[in-house]
Amino acid sequence: MNTAVLNSLTWCEISSKNLKNNLSVLKGLIGKNVSFLSVIKANAYGHGLLKVAHILEPDVDFFGVHSAQEAYTLLKSGIDKQILILGPVFKEQFAMLNPARVHLTCSTMELIDDLHKNGFSFPLHIKVETGTHRQGFPPEKIEKVLKKIKKYGLPLVGLSTHFANIEDTIDHSYAKRQLKKYLEIKEIVENCVGKLQFYHTACSAAILLFPETHFNLARAGISLYGYWPSREVKLSFKIKYGEDGPKLKPVLSWKTYITEVKEVEKGEYIGYGCTFKTTRKSKIAVLPIGYYDGYDRKLSNKGVVLVRGQRAPVVGRICMNLTMIDVTDIEGVKVQDLVYLIGEDGEESVSADTLAELAQTINYEVLSRISPHIPRIVV
Taking the model in full, what pTM does it have? Predict the structure, then answer.
């Protein structure tokens, strides 16, 4: 058994085979003439920043991260691919980054001024506002931005935007309006400074459904890890490619052990707040994980895990470090039996989608909130 497993009460297993399958599917959709950026922010969507980066490095062109700290971690580990920081960077962080390897997303005048005043020059990707109203320069400021970048002699290499409503709907009219705005801004940029090296708008949903958004660089996030951005995207993809079309395969399994099994009489309460009362003599098992580990407290009395290839419901409130499950109908359960919090065991499965629906959230949150302290083991 892996040492990390022996030393841990809970761990995640990362399937390099499934990760490479998803990469192959996505690269097949964008074609050979489009560069591929793997988004590995938020601890690679909970999968482990460095574990994922080292698996993907031979076959991708860029890594996308949120912060200077994430970029620094990649640089320090010996990752040799180009890195695009998608989030903000402050002037105090410039010195920790290598301008030969790190590109910056530029969506504020302050960043341009800070680079000039402090004598730093990083490749810049201007982010433009097309309708998300998060990061990005509005169209009416683009010429002013371009003039300042040119005046300071900063290298402008890319133009990007982000779609606001491309995945949670089958009505893509808003995304099409955003794309139209992007193309108009692209024309302004090229009239002012000529063609840039990189144009990118495509997130996972756009990669899967809309070739016209691919340009020459595509940014893959959730789909890389084997999950669909939404049910609507999955349905649209199946309509487009058929049931036998390319398949995404979940990369992460989350496991733990049973640490205690006890008999509880009918009419007794389980856990804090007395929120669950047994309706029969029950066999209750205790798991050594809780909301500290990223197992959402909203799964209290709703969640389900797999024990011996069977589903076992979560009973009572999820605690900081402990969770109780009902194993009354599962034969032979004992201490140190393996439990799947996410994954497949025999014919049964529990996915991040399963937990997201029960907790009324999204698969992105379920995965990215799995605590970084939990070991990630590549299998």
Answer: 0.95
